[in-house]
Every structure is written in C-alpha cells, then in structure tokens.
Amino acid sequence: MAAISADDAWAAGLGANGSLIVHWNGRAWSQSLAGSGYFNGIAASSARDVWAVGGTNWFSPTQPLAEHWNGKAWAHVATPSPAGGGLFDGVAVTSPTNAWAVGDAGPGPGVPSATNPLVEHWNGTSWS
Predict the structure, then answer these.
(1) Strands, sheet with 64-69, edge to edge from the N-terminal-most edge strand
(2) What is the reported pTM?
(3) 57-93: b or e for each residue (b if 16 or more CB lie within 10 Å)?
(4) Nearest Cα to Cα of residue 86 among 122, 52, 61
(5) Which pLDDT does position 109 carry in this prediction?
(6) Which of 1, 50, 62, 126 could form an S-S bond across to 108 if both were Cys, CB 3.0 to 4.6 Å?
C-alpha cells in the first residue's frame, strides 16, 4: 500500500483474475488497473509518480512486471528479463528519476528452486 495523502492512496496485489490495483479518493476504493500477472509492491513519490511491481505469471515462467502511474493513466514499463525468469517483491521511489525494485531471479513463486537476488534501478528512462 502507498498513501500520498488522506484522499490519495493506492493498494496493489492479486485479484480473482490477475493483477489488481485499487485507488482511494478519500471516500471510496475504485479499481484502477486489472490485468495479467500479479503485484507484490507499490510505492509513490507523488500523485504523478506511482510504481507497482510484481511478476507476469504466478507459476513458472515469470518475468518482472512494472507499471507506472503518471497522474492520468497506468503504463506498462519494460524491465530486464533475467535468464530463467524473475519477479519483483517490492519497490521504493523517491522521485521520477529514482526508483528501486527488488526481488528474485528464478522461475517463480509456484516453483520450488534456488533463486538469486534481483535489484533494478529506474533512472527516469529505463530499468537496469
């Protein structure tokens, strides 16, 4: 969950049909985005800079998933795809040119196997 103010908060996760992001406007929650994949984390530096991260598939193979809110709409943002798969578990953002996502490089949460740490940085243009 990420709260920007008393009337601007976001929550992200996994809904019945895949990824789900909801928004609080001070009076009620409303669905903001739903799609394939799932989200494990969400963070915001402002009302126009919100990131949600997770994975593309709950079971193997999965790839890191990142969505960005610019104040008007969500947009899918390409992420590096580790060999063998990977996913993001969390994200922290301090500005439109500085966000960090962490997770695991490996096949996914539904597959018991060894994983390695995954750390990616957003520089305002791309994840690396």
Answers:
(1) 38-46, 49-55, 64-69, 74-76
(2) 0.92
(3) bbeeebbbbbbbbeeeeeeeeebeebeebbbbbebeb
(4) 61
(5) 65
(6) 62
